[in-house]
Amino acid sequence: MIIDFENATELGLRDYPTLPDPKSGVRGVSALPGFPDLEVLEQKMPETLGDDAMVRILYSSSLLRGGKVIHTASIEEVDLRLISSASGIPLRTLQKEHGVKGYTLQAHIILYGNGEREDLGPYLGSMADEDISEWLFDEE
C-alpha cells in the first residue's frame, strides 16, 4: 500500500471499526525524521474504535498528520469469543471449524490507508515486545 502523505485523508470509525483507538494502549508518540508535520503513534493492545469489532489488536503503529491518523499498520487476531458472543455459535464449534484450540486465530498484518484495508497475511515473527518493536515500529 502506497500512502501519499500530502493528500491522505483521516481514518476513523466511519472507515473501519477495527482501527485502533488512538487514545488507547499508547506506548509513545515520536516525530518522523525528515517529515516535520508527521508523527508516529506506537500502541500495544489498543482498543478498537468500533464496539462491535471482532478482532484483538496486539500492536499498532500509526502515522499522524496534524494529530489525525492517516495510515495504520497493525498486528491483529480474530477473537472467536467475540464472534461466539455476537453470533450465538458455541465457542467450541468455532474452534473446531477453524482448527484451533485457543480463543484467537493466527495473527495477521493489516494495513489501513487511502480508504482501504489490506491484509498482508499471517504475522510469523516473534511476539516478544522487543522483536515487535524492531519490526513494526522501525522508522527507517
Description:
With 140 residues, the chain is of the alpha+beta class. The chain has three helices and six strands, in the order E-E-E-E-H-H-E-E-H. The longest helix has 8 residues. The protein is globular and about 50 Å long. The mean pLDDT is 89.
Compute the average pLDDT: 89
Major sheet summary line: 6 strands, antiparallel
Strand order of the largest sheet: 1-2-3-4-5-6
Strand elements, count: 6
Q: How far is it from the N-terminal to the C-terminal residue, by CA?
A: 17 Å
- Please state roughly what percent of the residues sit in beta strands, choosing from under 5%, 5-15%, 15-25%, 25-35%, 35-45% or over 45%: 35-45%
Q: How much helicity do the residues have?
A: 10-25%
SS field, number of helical segments: 3
The coarse silhouette is globular
- The ordered string of helix (H) and strand (E) elements is EEEEHHEEH
Radius of gyration: 16 Å
Note poorly predicted spans. Answer: none
What structural class do helix, strand and pairing data support?
Answer: alpha+beta
